Amino acid sequence: MDLQPTEEHLAVAELTRAIGLDVLAPAARKAEEERAVPDDVWRTLVDTGLTMPLSEELGGGGIPDTVTQMIAIENLAYGDPGLTMAALWGGAPALLLSRHGSPEQTAGLARLSEDPKARSAVALYEGYGRGPEDFTTTISTAPDGTVRVKGRKVAVAFAETADPLIVVGRDADTGALRASLVPVSGPAGVTVEESVRS
User: Fold this and answer.
1) Rounded distance, CA 170 to CA 179, Å?
2) pTM for the whole thing?
3) Which of 24-33, 38-47, 140-149 has the lowest mean pLDDT?
4) Residue 10: φ, ψ to 5°
């Protein structure tokens, strides 16, 4: 096992450390006061391709390997961990859909990288330390193709404005891990509630 960083890893570390110190650190106080990532900061983070990676087929620069992404996260967080986490949470759907989505599901992803106001989210956590094997959220498909998602998720960043919102749960019949795109403003029964000011 070679633990030496490659030239690409060193370049990513240098770039993201500079963004962390020069862009994130100065914007941190304003972002905290306004409870939002400033548009110019969001644009800078998206433009790196590291926080919202899109496959080349979807018009992005490709999906970086895990080590490269971890190096980017570590160095961005040196500037401000809160802004870094917001960028990662906002980019998680792009990563999931780039790797696993159908052409129909990935059609709107370009908008996420072009519009600094656009947000997406993954509803994953259920609280109380539950891992995926303990999820109580179920996803089932009726014979007519209608998908039903039933459950409760917590700590979903950008849930109020997310498009798309990806909900992760268990298949109601097989118990296998499954995800579904859920329009927040669309179907009856989707409720988003703020639990804490954070």
Assistant:
1) 8
2) 0.80
3) 38-47
4) -65, -40
